[in-house]
Design a protein that fits this description.
This protein has three helices and no strands. With 78 residues, the protein is an all-alpha fold. The protein folds into two domains: 43 residues; 34 residues, no CATH class. The radius of gyration is 20 Å and the shape is elongated.
């Protein structure tokens, strides 16, 4: 009984740590790719493109469908 409780707590803790680590890694990758995208946009020296890119990044999707479409478009256009 006590051993099972300890095992359950260990599994819950490991699950939490794994999710925390995966979330942190995803956040780091997101920041890196965002910085690379910004750098490449700056290299274009096209003010209109840079302005449209900033507006698109700052605009929130209206619904889940639009958000998934933007994410898919971002993956394909890389």
């Amino acid at each position: 009984m006590v051993v099972e409780l300890v095992q359950q707590r260990c599994m819950e803790y490991l699950s939490y740590v794994t999710c925390w680590w995966a979330g942190g890694a995803a956040g780091a990758v997101s920041r890196i790719t965002g910085a690379l995208g910004k750098g490449i946009a700056t290299l274009t020296l096209d003010e209109d493109y840079q302005k449209k890119r900033r507006e698109a990044i700052n605009k929130r999707p209206a619904d889940l469908k639009e958000g998934l479409a933007r994410g898919g478009h971002g993956l394909v256009m890389v």
